[in-house]
Write a structure and sequence with these properties.
The chain is an alpha/beta fold. It is 34% helix and 14% strand. The chain contains 13 helices and nine strands. The radius of gyration is 18 Å and the shape is globular. This is AB hydrolase-1 domain-containing protein.
């Protein structure tokens, strides 16, 4: 039976697109924490999704990671499709990631690899503070984060907002601003997110693109855990997407150059949602990164 451990938020609000229809054909499996999962001793992948997106979009990647022996934990961030968008900030997303995704796994003694896509690079690294395996081991506790993977993600320093990272610190023309609701939309999602997919498939996935809280783009991030070289040296991977029309390759390279630390950089000829257009390649890269992180622990 195909194992699916997407949270309930991943299957809420299914639309009529082909993408959503396919999701309903998948079967929920057993919970690996109950001992039925073949890869139950492998690290858990905690996936922090990008702006405007929901867990539905990551279903193929999650499925392939499951088949490779890795359980993935993902929940929809509060800043997406919120009924109270003005209250959703990078900070509220950070608290959500820490309390709902990271802590339940780590408190259960599990090792975690943090995988962040796009906007996920804002709340994810801040939520990780103090939760590395090294720090918890020093406290006599099991589990913890053993590495981080950025997938065409923002790499930001403390105090920076997403708006700060945009050219001229102004919204690009393709980011639609809805002042009355405090939300942001996407103009032409097939071009921005799915430019490397067939037209019909790109149109289908575009129907799943939601609305993003404006305040989540204008509020500052906290101190990122990846910046601590004493903990995360050789444990940072960046997966670039060279055909990206949302975060162009030049921007991704600039993030890395200005981070002040070293990253293991790999490039994929793919658009912003590479996990849809090239799920096998991204799965292989994630699995290899996890094994590398584990190898560092074995060598030590």
């Amino acid at each position: 039976m195909l194992l699916w451990l997407v949270s309930y938020t991943a299957i809420l609000h299914l639309g009529n697109s082909q993408a959503s229809t396919k999701l309903t054909n998948l079967t929920m499996g057993d919970n690996p924490s109950q001992g039925s999962f073949a890869g139950q001793n492998n690290p858990v992948i905690v996936l922090v999704h990008g702006a405007w997106l929901t867990p539905i979009q990551y279903r193929e990647l999650i499925s392939l990671l499951s088949l490779s022996g890795y359980r993935t934990v993902i929940q929809q961030l509060p800043s997406v499709n919120s009924k109270n968008p003005d209250a959703q900030t990078v900070g509220t997303d950070t608290i959500f990631v820490r309390n709902n995704l990271l802590l339940p796994e780590i408190r259960a003694g599990r090792e975690v690899v943090l995988l962040m896509h796009s906007y996920g690079g804002f709340p994810g690294p801040v939520a990780a503070n103090g939760l590395s395996r090294q720090e918890l081991s020093n406290q006599g506790k099991p589990g913890g984060i053993i590495g981080m993977i950025m997938l065409s993600a923002f790499v930001v320093l403390e105090g920076q907002s997403l708006l700060d990272k945009l050219i001229g610190k102004v919204y690009s023309a393709w980011i639609l601003q809805f002042d009355t609701t405090g939300q942001l939309g996407v103009a032409d999602p097939p071009f921005r997110f799915y430019n490397d997919l067939p037209a019909l498939e790109a149109d289908a996935w575009s129907k799943e693109v939601g609305l993003q809280s404006r305040t989540s783009f204008e509020s500052p991030a906290g101190q990122p855990a990846w910046a601590d070289d004493s903990i995360y040296a050789n444990r940072r991977v960046y997966l670039q997407t060279t055909l990206d029309n949302a975060i162009p390759l030049a921007g991704q390279k600039n993030f890395i150059a200005n981070s002040g630390v070293m990253w293991d950089v790999q490039a994929f000829e793919a658009g912003h949602c590479s996990f849809i257009s090239q799920p096998k390649a991204i799965t292989q890269a994630v699995v290899q990164a996890v094994k590398t992180f584990q190898g560092l622990d074995t060598a030590a």
